[in-house]
Write a structure and sequence with these properties.
heterodimer, B: alpha/beta, four-stranded antiparallel sheet, about 30% strand, binds adenosine-5'-triphosphate, binds magnesium ion
Chain lengths: ~250, ~300
C-alpha cells in the first residue's frame, strides 16, 4: 500500500541535506539561536530561571520548539509548491507511488528533522543548562511531534491553495506568524481581551503551546488531553479540506 | 505487419478545462508493436489525450481501454505494464541519476537492471550526477530510462525531442526505434513532421481537439496530396509544349530555362521521364519534389504546423 515510502523518505532527506543552507538553516541555526539566547538569558538571571526570562511567558525551549515546528511547516509549504510547479509531483504520481505515499514521505522528512533538531537542542541544553536535566525530554519530544504533525496539516492546506512557488513562503509566513502573537507564547491567553481570546481559541498553535508548556513543566498527559484532542481535530479538518482542494499540477 | 491487434482503444473521449474544450470526440486504436504518433500544433490536445490514456487525467466522457484494462479502474495493473514520459516533467533538482532509477525500480514487481539500462542509454558516466546538472538530452534519456525500467508493454512519449539539437534528436530517434524493435508498442506525440515521418508507422493528425485523419504517413500523403512535382532545367525550345502534353499534367511553370511540372498519379514522374526521352530533350537538372506530412497538414488544416 505504501510501497516506496521508506525509499522515498530516505531519498528526500538526502536531497534536503544537499541543499545549500538545507541542514544549516533548519537544524543548526535554531540550535545556535537557542544556545546564544540561552547563554544570554542564563547569564542574566542565573541558570534554572529560564521560564521567567523577560518577555517570554514560557520557557525558551518551548519557544524555540514552536519556531522549529513553524519553520518545518513553512519549508513543507515551499517544497510542495516547488514540486508542483516543476511538475515533479505529477511525474511521481504517474508511477505506482500512491499520492498519500508522496505526501507522507514529506511529512516524515519534516518530522524527522524536527526530532533531530530537538535532540541537538537537548544535547546543547545539557551542556549549558545542567539544571534542566530533569525535564521529561521523551515526553516533550512526543508532544512536539504531535504538535508539528498537526501544524503540518495547516501547511498542507496552505500548500494546496498558494498559486505559485514564489508566493509559498510569504503567504505561509503571513498566515502562520501572526498566530505566534496570539497563542500564549508571550501573554497568557486568559489575560487577552475577550475578542482576542476568542481568536486565540481557534488558533491551533494555542493548543500546541499549551501542550508543550505543560509537558515541559512536568504536568501529566491526562491534564492535556484537551490540547491533544484539539490538535488531532485540526489535523483531521485540514487534511480533509486539503484532500478536497489539493492540486497536483 | 501482420494482423492488427489493438492494445489501446479510445472511443469518443472528451475533456474540457473550464470553458476550454481541449479534446472532443477523439477516437483511435493503437495496434500491438506499432509506433503510433499524435501530431498537431501547440494546444491541439495531444498531451491531454495522451494523459487520459495513461490514466493520469480523467476524460469527461468516452471510453478508453489499454491492454484490455480500464486505466482508471485497474490503475495498478495498468501502471505496471506501461511506461510513461511526460512533457515538461522535472525531477528533484538534487536527485542523483542512480537514485531516481533505483527509486523507480523499487516501485515495480519485475524491474530491469537499472545499471544496464543507464549504460544502454549512454548515461553510465552520469550515474552520480544531480538531475539539475544534466543537459536537455541527458534529462530526456533519463526519462526514457524511467519509462522503460519496468519493462513495459506500451511506452508513452510526449514531445520527446522538443528543445533538443538535431544531433541529440537523432540519437533519441534511434533509441525509440530500438524500443520498437524489442516488440513494444510506442505511443508518441510530436509537432515535428520529420520526426513523425521517420518514426511512426501510423499517425493521427489532431487539431483543436479533434482528429482530422489517421493513417500511415504514405497513406496520408497519397490520400491528400496526390500531386507530384518535377523540376528540371533544359534549353530545348520544344520542352514547354511537349511537357504540357503529358496526359495527367496539371501545371507547367517556366522560369527561364527551369520548368516546374506538376501532375497527378503514381506514374507521373515516369511519364515525365518517358516524355523527355521520346523527344530527346536534354536536361541539365532533374529533381522530384515529393509531398510529405507537412504538405498533408497544410492541406488538411489550411496552415503550417508552426504558425
Ligand atoms: N491544466 C490545464 N488547465 C487549463 N487548460 C489546459 C490545461 N492543460 C491544457 N489546457 C488547454 O487545453 C488545450 C490542449 O492542451 P494540450 O496540452 O493537450 O495541448 P498539446 O497538443 O499537448 O500542446 P503542446 O504541443 O503545446 O504540448 C490548450 O488549449 C491548453 O491551453
Ligand atoms: Mg503537449
Amino acid at each position: 500500500m505504501l510501497r516506496g515510502l521508506r525509499k522515498l523518505t530516505w531519498l528526500e532527506i538526502k536531497i534536503f541535506l544537499r541543499e545549500p543552507l538545507g541542514a544549516f538553516g533548519s537544524i543548526l541555526f535554531p540550535v545556535l539561536v537557542f544556545v546564544v539566547a540561552g547563554r544570554f538569558v542564563g547569564g542574566l538571571r542565573g541558570p534554572g530561571s529560564l521560564a521567567a526570562a523577560g518577555f517570554l511567558r514560557v520557557g525558551l525551549p518551548v519557544f524555540v520548539s514552536v519556531l522549529i515546528a513553524l519553520s518545518a511547516v513553512l519549508s513543507l509549504v515551499t517544497v510542495i509548491s516547488i514540486y508542483r510547479e516543476g511538475g515533479i509531483l505529477k511525474r511521481l504520481r504517474a508511477t505506482p507511488l500512491r499520492p498519500q505515499t508522496i505526501l507522507a514521505a514529506h511529512v516524515l522528512v519534516k518530522l524527522a528533522l524536527t526530532a533531530l533538531t530537538m535532540a541537538l537542542m537537548v544535547l546543547a541544553g545539557k551542556r549549558y543548562f545542567p539544571a534542566h536535566t530533569h525535564v521529561p525530554i521523551f515526553g516533550f519530544t512526543v508532544a512536539l511531534l504531535i504538535a508539528t504533525w498537526s501544524i503540518l496539516s495547516i501547511g498542507f492546506l496552505i500548500a494546496s491553495i498558494v498559486p505559485t512557488a514564489r508566493f509559498a513562503q510569504p503567504i505561509g509566513a503571513a498566515i502562520l506568524y501572526p498566530m505566534i502573537g496570539l497563542c500564549g507564547l508571550f501573554v497568557p491567553v486568559q489575560s487577552l481581551p475577550p475578542a482576542l481570546q476568542a481568536v486565540a481559541r481557534v488558533v491551533p498553535l494555542t493548543y500546541a503551546v499549551s501542550l508543550l508548556d505543560g509537558i515541559w513543566k512536568g504536568e501529566a498527559w491526562s491534564a492535556h488531553l484537551g490540547d491533544v484532542a484539539a490538535l488531532v481535530a485540526v489535523f483531521a479538518v485540514c487534511t480533509a479540506l486539503s484532500a478536497k482542494v489539493f492540486r497536483w499540477e | 505487419m501482420g494482423t492488427f491487434r489493438p492494445v489501446i482503444h479510445v472511443s469518443r473521449i472528451r475533456k474540457s478545462y473550464g470553458a476550454t474544450v481541449a479534446v472532443s470526440e477523439v477516437s483511435f486504436d493503437v495496434g500491438e508493436g506499432e509506433v503510433f504518433g499524435l501530431i498537431g500544433p501547440n494546444g491541439a490536445g495531444k498531451t491531454t489525450t495522451m494523459e487520459c490514456v495513461e490514466g493520469v487525467r480523467r476524460p469527461d466522457a468516452g471510453r478508453i481501454s489499454i491492454l484490455g484494462l480500464d486505466p482508471f479502474r485497474d490503475v495498478v495493473q495498468v501502471q505496471n505494464r506501461i511506461g510513461v514520459q511526460l512533457q515538461q516533467a522535472q525531477l528533484q533538482k538534487r536527485i542523483k541519476v542512480w537514485e531516481a532509477v533505483d527509486l523507480w525500480a523499487s516501485l515495480y514487481p519485475k524491474p530491469l537492471d537499472g545499471n544496464r539500462l543507464l549504460e544502454q542509454l549512454g548515461l553510465a558516466d552520469k550515474r552520480n550526477a544531480w538531475f539539475m546538472t544534466l543537459s536537455g538530452g541527458q534529462k530526456q534519456r533519463l526519462f526514457i530510462a524511467l519509462a522503460l525500467i519496468n519493462d513495459p508493454e506500451v511506452v508513452f512519449l510526449d514531445e520527446l525531442t522538443t528543445g533538443l539539437d538535431p544531433q541529440s534528436r537523432r540519437a533519441i530517434w534511434d533509441l525509440v526505434r530500438g524500443i520498437r524493435d524489442r516488440g513494444k508498442t510506442v505511443f508518441l506525440t510530436t509537432h515535428l513532421m520529420e520526426e513523425a515521418e521517420r518514426l511512426c508507422d501510423r499517425v493521427a493528425i489532431i487539431e483543436h481537439g479533434e482528429i482530422v485523419d489517421i493513417g500511415s504517413p504514405e497513406e496520408l500523403v497519397r490520400r491528400h496530396c496526390p500531386t507530384r512535382t518535377v523540376i528540371l532545367a533544359t534549353e530545348n525550345a520544344l520542352a514547354e509544349e511537349r511537357l504540357g502534353a503529358i496526359p495527367r499534367v496539371e501545371n507547367v511553370i517556366r522560369q527561364g530555362s527551369q520548368f516546374t511540372i506538376q501532375g497527378r498519379g503514381e506514374d507521373f514522374v515516369t511519364e515525365v521521364i518517358q516524355c523527355l526521352s521520346e523527344n530527346r530533350i536534354r536536361v541539365a537538372d532533374f529533381r522530384t519534389v515529393l509531398p510529405n506530412l507537412e504538405d498533408v497538414f497544410l492541406k488538411l488544416t489550411g496552415h503550417s504546423i508552426r504558425d
